[in-house]
Amino acid sequence: MDGNGRWAKARHLPRVAGHRAGVEAVRRVVEAAPDLGIEVLTLYAFSSENWKRPADEVGDLMGLLRHYIRSEIDELHRNGIRLIFIGNYKALKPDLVTLLETSAERTRDNSRMTLAIALNYGGQDEIVRAARACAAELPADQIDAAALEARLDTAGLPAPDLVVRTSGEQRLSNFLLWQAAYAEFVVTDRLWPDFDRAALTETVAEFSQRERRFGGR
Ligand code: IPE
Ligand code: MG
Questions:
Q1: Residue 182 domain-assigned (yes or no)
Q2: Alpha carbon distances (Å) from 69 to 65, 122, 198
Q3: Is 46 helix (H, G, I), strand (E, B) or coil?
Q4: Is position 152 within any domain?
Q5: Which residue of 22, 57, 76, 128 has the fewest CB atoms within a 10 Å radius of its CB?
Q6: CB 138, CB 125: distance < 8 Å
Q7: 27 in any annotated domain
């Protein structure tokens, strides 16, 4: 989800206004995704590198996260959404961690769609944590791709078919590095706060035109 700052700047608004508009886009996309047959939607909300931003912006993002979960959890649950969190989210403030874990627990049996929110997430950090878990549990000759995959934060989830990047940036920025090995990549110039049901539908249509070979021919 990229482009909140540019969206605000274009309107001569403070960055936080862009982040607020970004939350509205999250609401729209989470509502539309199950209708398009999306089974798992992963949102890159806060990266392990986003701590480099000024403290007040980090505070705004954490405040918006808290507000989003509190205000949406009933609706998400009603809509059959299972909420999970990936990344080192346990390093966030204890009250926030409790809110996240309570929300995940409450929605754990829902099956219409899984909404994974990546918080304090970095693909390299996730792989390092999984590698450490492998090393602690297994002899070296039993550490293989399946063993590592089973210890990623996304264990049990399918690999993503499609990675969408908004605001025209053409890079992965440490998102799902392992899991995106064969994902299709779609870049749109649209800024995240302008993303909506129609944009998601268009993106999925573009994805469905791709010919996927997974290294075969
Ligand atoms: C996305 O928008 C923010 C996060 C999800 C942390 P940005 O804040 O990166 O917006 P730009 O790149 O400045 O436009
Ligand atoms: Mg950005």
A1: yes
A2: 6, 21, 24
A3: strand
A4: no
A5: 128
A6: no
A7: yes
- Domain of 86 in residue numbering reads as 4-122+162-208
Residues in the ligand 1 pocket, defined by CB under 6 Å: 1-6, 45-46, 50, 61, 167
**26 in a structural domain:** yes
Among 68, 72, 77, 158, smallest CA distance to 110 is for 77
Judge whether residue 217 has pLDDT over 90: no
pLDDT, one tens digit per residue, over 135-193 is: 999 999 999 999 999 999 999 999 999 999 999 999 999 999 999 999 999 999 999 99
Q: Which residues are catalytic?
A: 2, 50
Q: Tell me the per-residue pLDDT of 81-132, one tens digit each, with 9 for 90 and over.
A: 999 999 999 999 999 999 999 999 999 999 999 999 999 999 999 999 999 9
Q: Hunting for tokens 């996927």 — which residue is that? A: 212
62, 167, 174, 189: which to mutate for ligand 1, most atoms within 8 A of CB? Answer: 167
Separation CA 14–CA 10 (nearest Å): 10
Residue type for position 39: E
Model confidence pTM above 0.90: yes
CATH of the domain at 173: 3.40.1180.10
- If one counts the domains in the chain, the total is 1
